[in-house]
Amino acid sequence: MTTILQPDDTMIPGVSEPAKSRATRRVRGLSDRTIAWLFVAPTIALLLAINIFPLVWMIRLSFTSLNLSMSYLPLRFVGLDNFTDILTDEDVWFRLQTTAQFVIWSVALQVVIGYGLALLINRQFRGHSFWTTIILLPMMLSPAVVGNFWTLLLQPQIGPFNYLISMFTGVPPSSFSMTGQVSLAPWTIVLVDTWMWAPYVMLICLAGLRSIPDYIYEAAEVDRASAWRQFWSITLPMTVPFLMLAVLFRAIENFKMFDMVNLLTSGGPGSTTELVSITLKRAAFEKWRTGYSSALAIILFVTVFGAANIYVKALNKVKQR
Amino acid sequence: MTAVLTKSSAHSIVEASPRAKIVAGGLVILYAVITILPLLWIVATAFKSQSDAIAYPPKVIFEPTLEGYVNLFTVRTRQTPDFIAKLPPPETWYDKLVRQRDMVIAGPSKVVPRFVNSLIIGFGSTFLAVFLGTLAAYAFSRFRIPLADDLLFFILSTRMMPPVAVAIPIYLMYRQLNLTDTRLGMILLYTAVNVSLAVWLLKGFIDEIPREYEEAALVDGYTRLQALRKVVLPQAVTGIAATAIFCLIFSWNEYAFAVLLTSGEAQTMPPFIPFIIGEGGQDWPAVAAATTLFVIPIVLFTVLLRKHLLRGITFGAVRK
């Protein structure tokens, strides 16, 4: 603000043509402070109406026993019952475990593949730009549509996936089902998620690699540092903040994961791939337990928010080093 | 000196050796081919007949047909061969195609209205989000706003909520306001989600425009608003366009809100596509045809956005 000149203070009469109407302009032109508020207010108002008001309402509902399929019942406040119910429910803990395993494995795989790809692409071979664009395509698609068409690809008989596996391993293609088998389904959602999001990690890591100035490597060359040594002492440490940023974004997104898995396995077989978002959807929109699901939603939100905050602090520490 | 160094040391990472480049290129191309195969399979399935699509073993070579696309756009009824023989000769190529399967076209399917919903909701929410986002981003970029960092963080944090969790109170609120399953309701909701991205991205873009241009305009007697319109906006045009495409892609691809809050009237493509049913289950060629048509704009956008992609997916945290 201090660097911005006020029109009224700086206008020199006679210098420019519009200066003639300075008197009218003073009335017509709004002050910077008014403009700032006029510009920010609509966005804040919209977010208050669509995000914050419903959130506050949800907090209120989480203390009630509201069930929409029996909404004729009077609203009954039950205190912290919903929260204690959820936190003592073994099933919920099991879903959280399923979700945590999904997040850890999918993010780990994406980091390995994404970082590897970024290192390779950074060698700037001919045509790398074209092939990078191809690799980026999956992450731009609708997760729901991806989940849906992978069910075709993974069909035990008619899908090409099992057929390809059998070509390489000799296992008969109809002898296993990627989405229907308890032992395979959790890996299937990790596989499809990695197919979709490894390019995301790749893109961020690539930016990290390109941010390292050449002269550091040149200095390392002068010191006769081996390629291996250069990687561990220069490349990796300098790309860690980027890698951590990618992990943060992916972990949050996958913790919330609903669309792709809902269409790929819809939580099955049994509940082996039932991520916590799917549990929430079932409680809220199939069993209509609004009070209970509001409490669960708040627990999830606090978890994401808390974890993200701790992580960002750690990220800042890494950056400062 | 630099040139000599990079040339003399074959294993320098600064400039990879030709052999390293070939190995890297080979591996990346292999990955790219594997990663694109599922998409190519879907595009191919759209041109298969129903029996080819579910053949065992899966068919790589087949006789292409437009049946999938015809099935996507029409509702058909099965008739006896006698009945079909008595009908007047087919008027169009698709009538003919359908009759070969002992079917008669009964009318258009719901795919066009769903597609129109996707377009209206997508463009409506994008326009609103970019409009509000540009104003807010300009204010955050150029004026000292009390608690600006907190406000910006608040704007971002609304995006951390799991969509299913947000949908619960929105469902209740929309029921009260008669906004359930309406395009307006979906536009407002998507605008709220997109505006956080728009503010963060556009603030980055506007920060990069030197203040000197505006200051010069202000000295020339422009008002703030005139300076914004005639000086800042023309410079921010690429950034605004990139932001708009990101918003459009989000609305286009969104599934969780759409499936939980719409059922017919305002339903968009993502919840519709998985439920394109033929006789006995999913009509895979038609589903694949819908997927192909749905994905084409995204592919074009990806190519267009290539330069700004990194910014968009990290909320402007990483610029280049």
TrEMBL record, chain B:
It is found in: Cell membrane. It is a multi-pass membrane protein. The keyword Transport applies. Keywords: Cell membrane, Membrane, Transmembrane, Transmembrane helix, Transport. Its main location: membrane. Residues 115-305 form the ABC transmembrane type-1 domain. The keyword Transmembrane helix applies. InterPro entries: BP-dep_ABC_trans_perm, MetI-like, MetI-like_sf. The chain crosses the membrane at residues 22-44, 119-139, 151-172, 184-202, 231-252, 284-305. Belongs to the binding-protein-dependent transport system permease family. PANTHER family: ABC TRANSPORTER PERMEASE PROTEIN (PTHR32243:SF52), MALTOSE TRANSPORT SYSTEM PERMEASE-RELATED (PTHR32243). This is Carbohydrate ABC transporter permease.
